[in-house]
Sequence to fold (495 residues):
Amino acid sequence: MKMKKTYRQWIGIGMMTLIGGCDSFLDVAPDNRVNLTDLDKNAQLLTNAYSIASPAFTDWMTDNVGFTTGVTIRQAQQQAYEWEDVTTGPTELDTPDFYWFKTYSAIAHSNEVLDALDEIVIENDEDRAYKDAIEAEAKLTRAYGHFMLVNMFGEHVTIDDGEDGVPYIKTPETVFIETYERESVRRVYREVEDDLEDGLEDVNDTYYNNSGKYHFNRNAALAFASRYYLWSGDPIECITYSSQLLGSNPGRFIRDLTSEEFLNAKSSITGYPQLYTSPDQASNLLLMRKISLVQRPDFAHGPLDQWYGDLYAASPFTGTTDERENPAFVKGNNALLPVRFQNLFERSSLNSNVGTPYHIAVIFSGEEVLLNRAEAYMLLGDLDECLADLQVFVDRRYSGGDTELTMDRLRAFFGAQNDPGFTDQLILLNYILFERQKEFIIQGLRWFDIKRYGLSVTHSLADGSTISLGANDPRRIFQIPQSAIEVGGLEPNDR
Fold:
């Protein structure tokens, strides 16, 4: 039997400050919580329940990138590229440690709000509905934070449910030393599902005014459910929730990159990402501000230019253009960076040259939901419905030719005309993963597809040699932060 792990407040909102002597300390609350006395204050605090850490750094570990020259490559970026445990600490942007601490900090805000709501007396139906909506958002943010953490720091759920996941924190931290233990991956998934279903029941968009795309609105919650049930191995439920979002006209949730609006925007490297990440796009279901360097073309590894050109030139169609290829920044001497994020910077003061780099990330999109549903149909063997969803998608990505998607075209694309062992179902799976790779490049979803399907990755090094990450390599699971191991006593992942 595993002993409980002692885990200081690294996991949550941080260490408290000890002020004065023992008597004065005992006279105050043993943490740094805000006094949340009304519903509006709770709603405002929930803006901090969205982690500022970006998952897009995981692309440096995938087959989307190669060894890039002429750029600044920080130690953590090179360690990620070589699948080494990152050792630069929790303050380094775009690292597993940074994601761990910032996400648990966000979760702490969710828990603070849920705890405070229990103490507020509700006297009318209007306030009751408002309280329910705040509680729903808090549970959705808590579920999403833990879901992403367990998929980074634990094995994929359908591989070994009993392996250690992450602690699922459901209460505010109110003591100097708190006790936690790593729960199994499957148990974390069950906790996520409970919070997700509770949140879906009461989520209410009417309280967000004009900022709804920056909160867990109902469509974002349905998209989260679509991803959750696909990754957990339940294609039927994935289809159910995906269809609740997509309705009878799924195309309205797919941005049309072949449209005049997007084609005209390609001439502007600032205008294009503004349009791509705009809250006015029906396809953008949840947006989050992320403190990150992934939007910078002068840092880290990127898609090699020859590979990138070959990727977007490949398709089952003749004479078409994949409109996702451009625009793209030049990255170093031999790579490109597709324009998906605005390269934003917040100065520390009005006249300062230092500050915080950030971007607005599309966390959930209609494109992902549609591809999730297509994959779920494929898994159930409903190939006609799978093809129908893919047709909606490709019509809005490829221009200049006939984009009718057929099994004959897909079989020819994969060179499997005379290979009966390469079944239609397997061909569709490969094509879905191919389109997902194109669609979500540099946005942080490829890594999870690699984990879900046990794909191998090979990276080149500066000296021309290569290294590989196999299907069962334990380095697919991020290492628990060193401070959580040493100070908190959490068990590290195997290496």
Remarks:
- The longest strand covers residues 355-365.
- Residues 217-455 form a domain with the Serine Threonine Protein Phosphatase 5, Tetratricopeptide repeat fold (CATH 1.25.40.390).
- Residues 1-32 have pLDDT under 50 and may be disordered.
